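Hi team,

As requested, here is the filled-out complex form for the NAI run. I kept the field names the same as last time so the parser does not choke. Let me know if anything looks off before we queue the next batch.

— J.
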Amino acid sequence: MSQAFDVVVIGGGPGGYIAAIRAAQLGFKVACAESSSYDDPKGEPRLGGTCLNVGCIPSKALLASSEEFEKINHHAADHGIKVGSVSIDSKKMIARKDDIVTKMTGGIQYLFRKNKITLLKGHASFEGKGADGYQVKIDGKDKETVTAKNVIIATGSKARHLPGIAVDNVLICDNEGALKFDSAPKKLGVIGAGVIGLELGSVWRRLGAEVTVLEAMPSFLGACDISIAKEAQKLFAKQGLSINTGVKIGDVKVDKKGVVVNYTDSAGKSAKLECDRLIVSVGRVPNTDKLGLDKIGLKVDERGFIPIDDHTCATAAPGVYAVGDVVRGPMLAHKAEDEGVLVAEVIAGQKPHIDYNCIPWVIYTDPEIAWVGKTEQALKEAGIAYKAGQFPFAANGRALGMGRADGFIKVLADAKTDEILGVHIIGANASDLIAEAAVAMEFKAAAEDIARICHAHPSLSEVMREAALATDSRALNM
Ligand code: NAI
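And here is what came back:
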């Protein structure tokens, strides 16, 4: 007889494994199917999805290594620290990153055991629906069909590839190959100045690569607040990242010397980029094929996403839910996690809620970029009257002590009610500082609330308070 579960989760990434844990906490009998083994030496499926295996976690490990290298190489002298010649052992750096990934994925296996979640090793797809619920076929090391009253689809996304550009993950790489270079390429090309292109381009630039980024859009970082994008472009150019916007990519060839990208620049002139390696980071597409969705009467939209109810993540098939990168909204691990928790609680009959306007965004460049809520351009477009307050890290003692004076925080508040509508940061530790803004916005705080809250001195968080004060033209230290 096939195993029967209350909840089967398809996909063990941040959306899926968190949904499985929350459902188990709520007392359900839960299984989670995972098929991808990534680089597991035994070929065993690994939990954690793109984020843990080939995304957020490994890229942040490399970011940290490259930042240490840059600090010692270029900034130690500012502190009066003399160092001899500094070199990087890329193999060791990659091994450290792999160790962190192994630890983290092993940690989820432990959490599965602790919460009595059954791991189904193999590719899961719908076979149909019977009296006992949905039949889900597992095809892999485990070959069986299980039944479930509720199914949560959390299959994530994969890198979008461009027609005519064959990704081999050696010379032409997506996010997976770009995390495995055994040495810094002399010349690195990047197609797409989005999150991945800028984060990984920055890593390899710090380690010595000459990096050229080719971006199709005429503007830079279009999703960011326009003043943050301008500041970022200025700072990245100063660091030596060459960013070319408004280009049209032509053919890409591999020859004995490396990769040649022919393109048309923003002035309409033909141009050529010769590089040792190329990263293609032009977005991601949802993994919704080969799931047997047709067997349960589900269809995807024209971009491959699964349509869902905006409040409950329920699909058109009763008892089937979808979360994370396979549904609308930003492709962010923390958004997927929150949807995973939400769905488990919906199944349990609770009434959870996600305010998508309060989901923080972070780009882990140096300095980091982080924001929550509306940009200034979005407020203008919507005709919302607002006031803006901005404060630079250069006027903060802690930032100066850290040698991290670049960037600023901008607070946008409603002109009449003073409610915070958006907070935008470019600067050191932006990924942590943004949490205060997300909390404030969830509680519908006013800029004055932040301004009246005591912030520790000396700390970077004082910049947030000063920016909030600046919305009322009463910053104290400027
Ligand atoms: P992205 O959507 O951030 O950026 C892709 C860039 O490529 C855009 O600027 C786009 O205009 C450009 N582009 C598209 N087609 C092009 C073409 N033919 N030629 C030149 N440029 C072209 O996508 P990315 O960087 O691949 O990241 C994928 C997803 O992963 C994002 O949705 C992001 O949210 C997520 N992610 C998030 C991270 C974070 O939160 N820090 C880190 C890494 C990824």
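Two things worth flagging: Residues 55, 162, 191-197, 199, 214-217, 249, 281-284, 330-332, 362-364 surround NAI (CB under 6 Å). The chain has three domains: 4-158+285-354, 172-282, 358-470.

Thanks,
J.
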